[in-house]
Design the sequence.
């Protein structure tokens, strides 16, 4: 625990290796000593969620934001989770990237992540429109309702920051999972993708 | 033209009134004198698009990025198009909000707008994922292929800034329109919305 520990961030289609420093790890364990600027959003946002009162999803057995499972902590993504200069834009875009991770403090590994990405609109009084993306839990940690917790934390964050609308897109097999989380399909709306050929340089 | 002119930004579900100053208007007319910082993205990005070479969509009669129609100019959204303090976040988020407008320089009105919103990912080498949003053209200016032009300009911008994926969502009646623009529906992906009740405060 005194040296850098390899962490992996899981996404649907990628495994991304990052290093987490022991310094960060000890700051996480003593969250009150951490510098909020180290995190992609203020950790207070999570601390201020009154999960017992606000949560709407049922967990069986019960888990919570503050107690997801032994050794696991839910916290914002950290500047030190990743060492990519080009990611600075994420940290310098105010109140846009609400990336939450679950870390196993016994190993220093990130075992789950979720992104609430917020777009500011120039209409609706500069309203905020949220999107939930990149929900993933390491296969070894599945069956602990952590994905469910990550999605609910993201929706609670969306409500807290004042999103007027939140969406996600998913494969058909995940529709029942997200339906239980309060999501529904509006048959009037259609998701369309741009063909790759339109993105390739001439 | 020497006083403030009322402009309106159209979106699907909103009409948003903004004022445009004559100072801005004259700067637009002499784009080379404008301060790039006034715009939400660098106007050079539009100027650098070799539309004749890069465009893939057919226009009949032919129109182009530099010549959409008499009196109309295509330019980035400007800080002075809107006077809302809370919109500052859009201008202080680097390379995230590529909002393009079409302005009728004879009236100073914004008659069309399109947003390419870019999300930075912590995976795919911090790749960029684009979304096209808020395509709208004032009803008086329809039938001039301006919506088509706005969508194509947004996809050309997406390619230029290096998006690896671009999507949009739309009502069924617009599917043929976006299909002609290079968009397709992937039956495996489903768009889901969060119920409003999950966003309301307790």
Sequence:
């Amino acid at each position: 625990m005194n040296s850098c520990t390899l962490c992996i961030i899981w996404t649907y289609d990628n495994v991304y290796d990052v290093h987490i420093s022991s310094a960060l790890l000890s700051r996480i364990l003593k969250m009150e000593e951490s510098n909020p600027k180290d995190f992609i959003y203020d950790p207070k946002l999570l601390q201020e969620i009154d999960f017992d009162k606000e949560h709407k999803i049922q967990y069986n057995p019960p888990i919570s934001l503050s107690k997801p499972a032994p050794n696991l902590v839910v916290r914002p993504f950290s500047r030190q989770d990743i060492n990519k200069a080009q990611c600075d834009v994420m940290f310098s875009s105010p109140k846009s990237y609400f990336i939450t991770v679950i870390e196993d403090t016994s190993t220093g590994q990130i075992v789950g992540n979720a992104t609430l990405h917020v777009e500011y609109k120039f209409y609706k009084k500069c309203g905020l429109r949220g999107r939930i993306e990149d929900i993933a839990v390491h296969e070894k940690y599945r069956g602990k309702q952590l994905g469910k917790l990550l999605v609910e934390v993201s929706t609670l964050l969306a409500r807290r920051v004042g999103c007027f609308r939140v969406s996600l897109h998913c494969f058909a097999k995940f529709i029942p999972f997200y339906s239980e989380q309060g999501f529904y399909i509006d048959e009037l709306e259609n998701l369309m993708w741009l063909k790759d050929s339109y993105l390739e340089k001439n």
Chain A is about 20% helix and 30% strand. The longest strand of chain A covers residues 109-120.
